[in-house]
Protein backbone atom coordinates (compact mmCIF):
# COMPACT_ATOMS: atom_id res chain seq x y z
CA UNK A 1 0.00 0.00 0.00
CA UNK A 2 1.06 3.58 -0.62
CA UNK A 3 2.00 5.35 2.61
CA UNK A 4 0.34 8.61 3.67
CA UNK A 5 2.18 11.62 5.08
CA UNK A 6 0.89 14.95 6.37
CA UNK A 7 2.62 18.30 6.11
CA UNK A 8 1.73 21.15 8.47
CA UNK A 9 3.29 24.28 7.01
CA UNK A 10 2.82 27.58 5.22
CA UNK A 11 1.93 28.09 1.57
CA UNK A 12 4.52 29.52 -0.84
CA UNK A 13 2.79 31.21 -3.76
CA UNK A 14 5.98 30.80 -5.79
CA UNK A 15 5.73 27.03 -5.44
CA UNK A 16 9.31 26.37 -4.37
CA UNK A 17 9.07 25.96 -0.61
CA UNK A 18 6.49 25.33 2.12
CA UNK A 19 3.42 23.19 1.49
CA UNK A 20 4.07 23.10 -2.24
CA UNK A 21 7.61 21.77 -1.84
CA UNK A 22 6.50 19.30 0.81
CA UNK A 23 3.82 17.76 -1.38
CA UNK A 24 6.21 17.59 -4.34
CA UNK A 25 8.81 15.82 -2.17
CA UNK A 26 6.23 13.34 -0.87
CA UNK A 27 5.11 12.56 -4.41
CA UNK A 28 8.65 12.32 -5.79
CA UNK A 29 9.51 9.45 -3.43
CA UNK A 30 6.17 7.66 -3.73
CA UNK A 31 4.09 8.84 -0.78
CA UNK A 32 0.58 10.33 -0.78
CA UNK A 33 0.52 13.78 0.79
CA UNK A 34 -2.13 15.53 2.84
CA UNK A 35 -1.69 19.12 4.00
CA UNK A 36 -2.59 21.56 6.74
CA UNK A 37 -1.91 25.18 5.77
CA UNK A 38 -0.74 27.40 8.63
CA UNK A 39 -0.24 30.64 6.69
CA UNK A 40 -0.58 32.06 3.21
CA UNK A 41 2.49 33.94 2.03
CA UNK A 42 2.81 36.31 -0.91
CA UNK A 43 6.18 35.03 -2.02
CA UNK A 44 8.36 34.55 -5.07
CA UNK A 45 12.00 33.68 -5.67
CA UNK A 46 13.13 37.11 -4.46
CA UNK A 47 11.10 38.05 -1.39
CA UNK A 48 8.22 37.39 0.97
CA UNK A 49 6.01 40.47 0.57
CA UNK A 50 3.09 39.50 2.83
CA UNK A 51 2.11 36.82 5.35
CA UNK A 52 -1.49 36.04 6.31
CA UNK A 53 -1.72 33.61 9.26
CA UNK A 54 -4.59 31.13 9.15
CA UNK A 55 -6.69 31.31 12.35
CA UNK A 56 -5.57 28.81 14.98
CA UNK A 57 -8.99 27.13 15.18
CA UNK A 58 -9.02 26.55 11.42
CA UNK A 59 -5.57 24.99 11.59
CA UNK A 60 -6.67 22.72 14.43
CA UNK A 61 -9.79 21.82 12.44
CA UNK A 62 -7.66 20.88 9.42
CA UNK A 63 -5.51 18.58 11.54
CA UNK A 64 -8.57 17.00 13.16
CA UNK A 65 -10.26 16.43 9.81
CA UNK A 66 -7.21 14.71 8.33
CA UNK A 67 -6.38 12.53 11.32
CA UNK A 68 -9.97 11.42 11.82
CA UNK A 69 -10.23 10.04 8.30
CA UNK A 70 -6.79 9.26 6.90
CA UNK A 71 -4.19 6.92 8.34
CA UNK A 72 -1.20 9.24 8.55
CA UNK A 73 2.05 7.31 8.71
CA UNK A 74 4.30 10.31 9.39
CA UNK A 75 4.02 14.07 9.84
CA UNK A 76 6.32 16.88 8.76
CA UNK A 77 5.93 20.22 10.56
CA UNK A 78 7.30 23.39 9.00
CA UNK A 79 6.33 27.06 9.30
CA UNK A 80 4.29 27.79 12.43
CA UNK A 81 4.89 31.48 13.04
CA UNK A 82 3.22 32.41 16.33
CA UNK A 83 3.12 31.14 19.94
CA UNK A 84 -0.65 30.54 19.90
CA UNK A 85 -0.38 28.52 16.70
CA UNK A 86 2.29 26.28 18.21
CA UNK A 87 0.00 25.66 21.18
CA UNK A 88 -2.89 24.84 18.82
CA UNK A 89 -0.81 22.41 16.78
CA UNK A 90 0.60 20.69 19.87
CA UNK A 91 -2.91 20.26 21.27
CA UNK A 92 -4.28 18.95 17.96
CA UNK A 93 -1.50 16.35 17.74
CA UNK A 94 -1.89 15.17 21.34
CA UNK A 95 -3.29 11.79 20.29
CA UNK A 96 -0.91 11.16 17.40
CA UNK A 97 1.86 8.65 18.10
CA UNK A 98 3.54 8.30 14.71
CA UNK A 99 6.89 9.77 13.63
CA UNK A 100 7.18 13.55 13.36
CA UNK A 101 9.89 15.46 11.51
CA UNK A 102 10.09 19.03 12.79
CA UNK A 103 11.80 21.58 10.57
CA UNK A 104 12.20 24.74 12.69
CA UNK A 105 11.54 27.19 9.87
CA UNK A 106 12.63 30.64 11.01
CA UNK A 107 13.89 32.59 8.00
CA UNK A 108 13.08 32.34 4.30
CA UNK A 109 15.81 32.04 1.66
CA UNK A 110 15.18 35.71 0.92
CA UNK A 111 16.05 36.60 4.53
CA UNK A 112 12.48 37.34 5.60
CA UNK A 113 11.51 36.24 9.13
CA UNK A 114 8.95 33.42 9.29
CA UNK A 115 8.94 32.65 13.03
CA UNK A 116 8.40 35.32 15.66
CA UNK A 117 11.10 35.43 18.35
CA UNK A 118 8.32 35.18 20.93
CA UNK A 119 7.40 31.75 19.54
CA UNK A 120 10.77 30.08 20.04
CA UNK A 121 10.17 29.09 23.66
CA UNK A 122 6.83 27.48 22.80
CA UNK A 123 8.41 25.62 19.90
CA UNK A 124 11.08 24.20 22.18
CA UNK A 125 8.83 23.39 25.12
CA UNK A 126 5.80 21.99 23.28
CA UNK A 127 7.04 20.33 20.08
CA UNK A 128 10.68 19.31 20.48
CA UNK A 129 9.74 16.40 22.73
CA UNK A 130 7.28 15.21 20.06
CA UNK A 131 9.89 15.24 17.30
CA UNK A 132 11.37 12.00 16.04
CA UNK A 133 13.80 14.21 14.15
CA UNK A 134 14.67 17.90 14.28
CA UNK A 135 16.24 19.37 11.12
CA UNK A 136 17.83 22.79 11.80
CA UNK A 137 20.28 24.53 9.55
CA UNK A 138 23.25 26.23 11.21
CA UNK A 139 21.65 29.67 11.71
CA UNK A 140 18.51 28.04 13.14
CA UNK A 141 20.53 25.90 15.54
CA UNK A 142 22.37 28.99 16.76
CA UNK A 143 19.12 30.85 17.30
CA UNK A 144 17.63 27.91 19.20
CA UNK A 145 20.52 27.03 21.53
CA UNK A 146 23.27 29.59 20.94
CA UNK A 147 26.64 29.38 19.23
CA UNK A 148 28.89 26.38 19.65
CA UNK A 149 30.22 23.31 17.91
CA UNK A 150 27.87 21.12 15.92
CA UNK A 151 28.03 18.45 18.62
CA UNK A 152 27.42 20.93 21.42
CA UNK A 153 24.40 22.40 19.66
CA UNK A 154 23.02 18.97 18.85
CA UNK A 155 23.42 17.82 22.44
CA UNK A 156 21.53 20.90 23.63
CA UNK A 157 18.71 20.16 21.18
CA UNK A 158 18.57 16.53 22.29
CA UNK A 159 18.34 17.68 25.91
CA UNK A 160 15.22 19.64 24.92
CA UNK A 161 13.56 16.36 23.99
CA UNK A 162 14.15 15.70 20.30
CA UNK A 163 14.66 12.04 19.43
CA UNK A 164 17.44 12.88 16.98
CA UNK A 165 18.86 15.95 15.26
CA UNK A 166 19.99 16.40 11.66
CA UNK A 167 22.50 19.25 11.70
CA UNK A 168 22.46 20.45 8.10
CA UNK A 169 25.65 21.83 6.60
CA UNK A 170 24.26 23.86 3.73
CA UNK A 171 25.29 27.16 5.33
CA UNK A 172 28.83 26.00 6.09
CA UNK A 173 31.88 26.64 3.90
CA UNK A 174 33.99 24.25 1.88
CA UNK A 175 33.75 22.15 -1.26
CA UNK A 176 31.90 19.39 0.56
CA UNK A 177 28.56 19.78 2.31
CA UNK A 178 28.12 17.44 5.27
CA UNK A 179 24.99 16.82 7.31
CA UNK A 180 25.32 15.18 10.72
CA UNK A 181 22.58 12.87 12.03
CA UNK A 182 23.08 12.91 15.78
CA UNK A 183 21.15 10.82 18.28
CA UNK A 184 21.79 9.52 21.79
CA UNK A 185 23.32 6.40 20.22
CA UNK A 186 25.84 8.09 17.94
CA UNK A 187 26.52 10.17 14.84
CA UNK A 188 26.22 9.41 11.13
CA UNK A 189 27.50 11.76 8.44
CA UNK A 190 26.08 12.34 4.97
CA UNK A 191 28.30 14.22 2.54
CA UNK A 192 28.05 15.46 -1.05
CA UNK A 193 29.97 17.93 -3.23
CA UNK A 194 28.76 21.49 -2.76
CA UNK A 195 27.16 22.74 -5.98
CA UNK A 196 27.50 26.18 -7.48
CA UNK A 197 23.88 27.19 -8.00
CA UNK A 198 21.63 29.89 -6.62
CA UNK A 199 18.58 27.68 -7.16
CA UNK A 200 18.25 26.23 -3.68
CA UNK A 201 14.90 27.66 -2.61
CA UNK A 202 12.97 25.09 -0.60
CA UNK A 203 15.87 22.74 0.14
CA UNK A 204 15.10 22.53 3.87
CA UNK A 205 11.38 21.95 3.34
CA UNK A 206 12.01 19.35 0.66
CA UNK A 207 14.69 17.53 2.65
CA UNK A 208 12.62 17.21 5.82
CA UNK A 209 9.58 16.11 3.82
CA UNK A 210 11.54 13.45 1.95
CA UNK A 211 12.76 12.14 5.30
CA UNK A 212 9.23 12.11 6.70
CA UNK A 213 8.12 10.21 3.60
CA UNK A 214 10.75 7.57 4.26
CA UNK A 215 9.57 7.19 7.85
CA UNK A 216 5.99 6.90 6.57
CA UNK A 217 7.15 4.03 4.37
CA UNK A 218 8.59 2.25 7.41
CA UNK A 219 12.25 3.02 6.81
CA UNK A 220 14.67 3.30 9.72
CA UNK A 221 15.61 6.90 10.45
CA UNK A 222 19.18 6.62 9.13
CA UNK A 223 17.92 4.99 5.93
CA UNK A 224 15.24 7.65 5.47
CA UNK A 225 17.85 10.39 5.87
CA UNK A 226 20.27 8.64 3.52
CA UNK A 227 17.71 8.27 0.73
CA UNK A 228 16.44 11.84 1.20
CA UNK A 229 20.03 13.14 1.12
CA UNK A 230 20.73 11.38 -2.20
CA UNK A 231 17.43 12.56 -3.67
CA UNK A 232 17.95 16.17 -2.60
CA UNK A 233 21.49 16.20 -4.01
CA UNK A 234 20.09 15.24 -7.39
CA UNK A 235 17.26 17.76 -7.05
CA UNK A 236 19.84 20.52 -6.51
CA UNK A 237 22.10 19.16 -9.26
CA UNK A 238 19.23 19.46 -11.76
CA UNK A 239 17.81 22.72 -10.39
CA UNK A 240 19.29 24.85 -13.15
CA UNK A 241 17.24 22.92 -15.71
CA UNK A 242 14.23 24.80 -14.37
CA UNK A 243 13.74 28.47 -15.14
CA UNK A 244 11.61 29.80 -12.30
CA UNK A 245 11.91 33.43 -11.27
CA UNK A 246 14.80 35.87 -11.08
CA UNK A 247 16.06 35.13 -7.57
CA UNK A 248 16.67 31.87 -5.71
CA UNK A 249 14.82 29.34 -7.84
CA UNK A 250 13.53 25.99 -6.59
CA UNK A 251 15.20 22.62 -6.66
CA UNK A 252 13.97 20.10 -9.24
CA UNK A 253 11.80 17.76 -7.19
CA UNK A 254 10.89 15.60 -10.18
CA UNK A 255 14.34 15.33 -11.74
CA UNK A 256 13.90 11.56 -12.07
CA UNK A 257 10.61 11.91 -13.94
CA UNK A 258 10.89 14.85 -16.34
CA UNK A 259 13.25 17.54 -17.59
Number of helices: 8
Q: Specify the biggest β-sheet.
A: 6 strands, mixed
Kindly identify the CATH topology: UDP-N-acetylmuramoyl-L-alanine:D-glutamate ligase
| Strand residues, percent | 15-25%
SSE pattern? EHEEHEHEHEHHEEEHH
Radius of gyration based on Cα positions: 17 Å
**Uncertain spans, ≥5 residues at pLDDT below 50?**
none
Helix/strand/pairing category: alpha/beta
CATH homology group: Ribokinase
General form: globular
Strand element count: 9
Mean pLDDT: 93
Identify the CATH architecture. Answer: 3-Layer(aba) Sandwich
If strands are numbered along the chain, what order do they take across the biggest sheet?
3-2-1-4-5-6
Number of domains: 1
State the name of the first-level CATH class: Alpha Beta
Keywords for this structure?
259 residues; alpha/beta; UDP-N-acetylmuramoyl-L-alanine:D-glutamate ligase; six-stranded mixed β-sheet; three-stranded antiparallel β-sheet; 8 helices
Explain what this protein looks like in three dimensions.
By secondary structure, the protein is α/β, with parallel strands linked by helices. It has a single domain (4-241), classed as Ribokinase (UDP-N-acetylmuramoyl-L-alanine:D-glutamate ligase, 3-Layer(aba) Sandwich). The chain is 36% helix and 21% strand. The strands form 2 sheets. It has a 6-stranded mixed β-sheet with strand order 3-2-1-4-5-6. A 3-stranded antiparallel β-sheet has the order 7-8-9, sandwiched between helices. Helix 5 (138-145) crosses helix 6 (150-159). The longest helix has 17 residues, at 221-237. It is globular and about 40 Å long. The model has no long low-confidence stretch (mean pLDDT 93).
